[in-house]
UniProtKB/TrEMBL annotation:
<dbReference type="InterPro" id="IPR003245">
    <property type="entry name" value="Phytocyanin_dom"/>
</dbReference>
<feature type="domain" description="Phytocyanin">
    <location>
        <begin position="27"/>
        <end position="141"/>
    </location>
</feature>
<dbReference type="GO" id="GO:0009055">
    <property type="term" value="F:electron transfer activity"/>
</dbReference>
<protein>
    <submittedName>
        <fullName>Cupredoxin superfamily protein</fullName>
    </submittedName>
</protein>
<feature type="signal peptide">
    <location>
        <begin position="1"/>
        <end position="26"/>
    </location>
</feature>
<dbReference type="InterPro" id="IPR008972">
    <property type="entry name" value="Cupredoxin"/>
</dbReference>
<keyword id="KW-0732">Signal</keyword>
Amino acid sequence: MASPISYAQGLIILLSASMFAVDGFANTTVVGGTENWRFGFNYTNWAIQNSPMYLNDALVFKFDPPNSTTFPHSVYLLRDFQSFLACNLTGAKMVADVTNGGGNGFKFVMKKWQPYYFACGEHDGLHCKIGLMKFAVFPLPRCHF
Ligand SMILES: *[C@@H]1O[C@H](CO)[C@@H](O)[C@H](O)[C@H]1NC(C)=O
Ligand SMILES: *[C@@H]1O[C@H](CO)[C@@H](O)[C@H](O)[C@H]1NC(C)=O
Ligand SMILES: *[C@@H]1O[C@H](CO)[C@@H](O)[C@H](O)[C@H]1NC(C)=O
Ligand SMILES: *[C@@H]1O[C@H](CO)[C@@H](O)[C@H](O)[C@H]1NC(C)=O
Ligand SMILES: [Cu+2]
């Protein structure tokens, strides 16, 4: 005979099982679509068109490693909104270097409920400023209870 306590415990196990299942709904999106991560594509516009994004969604940055014919790119997280507006790399955190975007690309999972300010860090912020290689995402929690 099931006691109320074991029923409650069963419910908790069920709820946590469906919380784990949330991972199954996470999206993986290639930044820039078929344009990949390159100089001169409007990533702000791309981010608007791909909103909203959710917690645990993954972004894939694809860029060829540098050689004599390709330009180097990278991925940085800028420290705050002001730095994002100004393409100021002071205090930014490099998450992918110039070689990390080859092959299947560099995958970044947005695990925290916070704004993420992505930018290319090459040429001291020039790719960010003039090359439009920056965008912001505030991933939302997925709610489906
Ligand atoms: C990039 O796209 C945004 C959003 O659509 C737009 O406001 C902005 O003017 C565009 N930038 C350029 C340089 O075209
Ligand atoms: C995944 O991303 C695509 C493209 O932005 C969107 O159409 C779709 O609704 C997203 N799926 C989920 C489960 O969020
Ligand atoms: C440079 O890299 C690109 C893309 O990976 C490749 O198509 C091209 O052949 C390479 N060029 C040289 C000179 O290695
Ligand atoms: C960049 O950000 C740092 C830290 O906030 C600040 O000290 C510096 O003045 C900024 N640089 C420019 C050019 O605004
Ligand atoms: Cu770049």
